[in-house]
Structure formats: C-alpha cells, structure tokens
Amino acid sequence: MPFNLQTFKTRALTAVVFVIVMLVGLLWNEWSFLVLFTVIHFGCWIEYQKLVALIDPEYKNINALHRYGVMFIGWGFMLWMTGTRYHIGNINIAEIGWSMEWLGIIIFLVSETLLTKKMQPRLWAHSLLGLLYISLSWGLMMRLWGNLNATALDSYPWMLPVLLIASIWINDTMAYIVGSFIGKTPFSPISPKKTWEGTIGGAILAVLIVTVVGFYALHFPVKTLLLISITAAVAGTAGDLLESKLKRLAGVKDSGSIMPGHGGFLDRFDSLLVATTVVWVLFQLVY
C-alpha cells in the first residue's frame, strides 16, 4: 500500500482529537471511564446491527424491543462488571446492572413471543454473537480498571487499560508506516491492504517500544509488558481481521463515518474488542 500524505494527515488529525477524548475518559476518574465505554458500547452495537442487517436482510426487520433490548442487556452486563467501585448514594451500580440484565432478558423474550409472528433463532443468534463480541469485551474492560492489583500495575487504576490501548495504537501505527514503505506481500484476502511486512514490523516495533518504555520509564515488570504488548499485536490483528470479514460480507468499506480517515466505532475499536477479552483471560491465568 503506497504512502499517501493526505490520507496520513487526515488520519493523524482525527487521531489527535480522538486521543484527547480517550485520555480524558480514561484518566479523569472512574465515572468518566464508565461514560466513555458506555458511549463506545452503544456506538459499536448500532454499527454491528447495521452490518448484520446488510449480511442478513431479515435482521433489519427485528422489532424495536429486540433491537434495543440486547443493547440494554449488554449495558447491564457492563454495569454489573464494575464490581464494588461505583455507588450512587447507598446504591451499588453493579446491582442495578444485574437487575437491568434480567429486565432486558424478560423484555427480549416477551417481545419475541408476543410481537414476532414466527420464531427465528438465526436472528437471535446474530444478537447473541453481538453480546459476546461487544458487550462481553467492554464488560471485561470494566474489570481491567483498577481490579488486577496483583499485576504490578496498581500504581494507577487506569494503567492496564491505557497500556493495552497504547500497545494497540502503536502496533496499528507502526504496521501502517512499515507496510506503506516496504509492504509487498498481502497478509490476508480478508484485508487486502494489510501486508506481512507491515504486520510483522508493526508487532515487533510495538513490543519493543512498550517493553522498553514501560521497563525503563515506568519500572514495570518485563513479563507484564510482554504479555500486554504481544497480546495487543496478535489478538489485535485478529480483531481487525474479524471486523474486516464482517465488512466484506456486508459489502461496505467502513462500519461508520464518525471518525474521518478511521471510519466508525467498530473500525477504531475492532482490535481492542478481541484483545481485551484475551488479556483478561491471560491475566487471570498468570496472576
């Protein structure tokens, strides 16, 4: 993929604004973190349902209670995964989330029973996959904020999510630059613009940068930094390919247009969706 200066400028400007918004949400406090990923959660769901409707036109006809009910269930799961950190007065947000999950399930089942003439398990499966793909990941992201104290990243509650996101951004940026200059060998027919040279070069540089900076500047253990950076490179690439496959099946270039040069929510967070789940599982096993 030849280097295009105008494309790079557009992507860079959008990235600067995007980074500012992300950093405010990530670093301000736990509430800004929750609000940030609540917005991302619903943005991803809206785009996912549009893609699925293009792949399976019958999904476009699901009733409103089905359409928004699954989002409601997913958001309830996110709130439930916040644990004991969030309170409004004496009310624990996690308890509200648990109630929302069951209320959403009841609404969903009632809507499908009373408002749908014919049961269509295939359409239910699309929504279930959305819960696993989107809501599970962002629910686990809530767990990564301040909950893994045994990882030696407990100096700041936001450190693990920030390191993971930074690793993915560095990997994506390095892969784009390396691939633009020396990329020749296509990586996958699913994403024809990706090259083996860019993918491997981006992964190596991302692991080196994150590990060196994290160890010498922040004094974090090398094992922890390698676990995060390697997972970001491998699982992040898998997430990118998964979303590319969805877009290819749907026949679209981008999942949305909210970020010029970057596409939509799924385009921007496709790598993080998969990497978050993998990192959570690995950290549970290791620590």
Q: Key features?
A:
287 residues, mainly alpha, globular, 9 helices
Notes on the structure:
By secondary structure, this protein is mostly helical. The chain has one domain. Helices cover about 70% and strands about 5% of the residues. Strands 1-2 form a two-stranded antiparallel sheet. α7 packs antiparallel against α8 (about 220-250). The chain is globular, with a radius of gyration of 20 Å.
Strand content range: under 5%
Q: Give the overall shape, derived from the CA principal axes.
A: globular
How is the largest sheet built, in terms of strand order? Answer: 1-2
Structural class: mainly alpha
Q: Give the rounded overall mean pLDDT.
A: 87
Helix content: over 70%
The helix/strand series, from N terminus to C terminus, equals HHHEEHHHEEHHH
Cα gyration radius (Å): 20 Å
| Regions with little confidence, pLDDT below 50 for 5+ residues | none
Main beta sheet, described?
2 strands, antiparallel
How many domains, as an integer? 1
Ends: how far apart? 40 Å
Question: How many H/I helices?
Answer: 9
Instruction: Compute the number of strand runs.
Output: 4
